[in-house]
Amino acid sequence: MLDASGRRTSESIKVFEVYPGLPGEERYRRLIEEDGRPVPGGDLAKRDRSRQKEVEDYARKLAIASERAKATREQDKARREYSAAVDDIFHIYDIRMLRRESLDGHDTILATLTPIPGAKPLTDDGQIMRHFKARAWISESDYELVRVEIEAIDSLSIGMGLLAKIDKGTTAAYKRRKVNDEVWLPAQVTWTAGARVLLLKRLRVRGVADFSGYRKFIVDTSTTYATAASQ
To answer: What region does 35 belong to: left with phi over 0, alpha with psi -120 to 50, or beta?
Structure first.
């Protein structure tokens, strides 16, 4: 938390273990440490039991054909919405390739994305995107996003301004890295923002989220054959 001059007034540090989420969840975060203190074992066990129950409930629902069909429809809808939001990027922005740059040992192309005046977004995500300009670095060899920086070019109201209002000048940066020379994954997210919440409380915040310690989960399968009973 920052004061009006940008000086820090308070700070909170949380450490999570992060796992793939259930369908409809981006990820599942398991809080293990807060402000240098490990989460008490009893609290952690309680949360783990609650999460296990959520997963088991979901598994039971999937055992029912109608629920499986519903989950498939929801996943298909999410994929369509994501694809439409990506298409909106090219509809909203004037995209220009500026130059080649080396970034963290990768050859990249630097591009700028500037909202086109009067462009009509086709998605809710597009309505938000038109309030931001961006710079993006794309890997030449993998065609993957290495880094993106965004900045609010005007104030953005959420919920008609009743829920929150994000100030002009709010910035964020998203950085990815190639893990095990196999897959590109989040490395760091930073943000500095000014906002007003519920028309009353003004906030100035600065945050950093670091991602590390990636582990590959390997699932082994086996088949066991029962011995037929003797006649």
So the answer is: left
* Pairing mode of beta strands 164-166, 156-158: antiparallel
Q: Give the CB-side neighbour count of residue 187, counting CA atoms within 13 A.
A: 13
What is the spatial order of strands in the sheet that 27-34 belongs to? 14-20, 27-34, 37-38
- Could you tell me the pTM of the whole model? 0.77
122 close to 91: Cβ distance less than 8 angstroms = yes
What single-letter amino acid sits at 149? E
pLDDT digit string, tens, across residues 53-96? 999 998 888 888 788 888 888 889 988 998 999 999 999 999 99
The three-state secondary structure class of 52 is: helix
- By the 8 A CB rule, do 184 and 144 touch? yes
Q: Which token pair is 156?
A: 């953005």
Please spell the DSSP secondary structure of 54-100, one letter per residue.
HHHHHHHHHTSHHHHHHHHHHHHHHHHHHHHHHHHHHHHEEEEEEEE
| Helix, strand or coil, per DSSP, at residue 140 | coil
Q: What does the alpha-carbon distance between residue 134 and residue 153 come to, in Å, rounded to a whole number?
A: 10
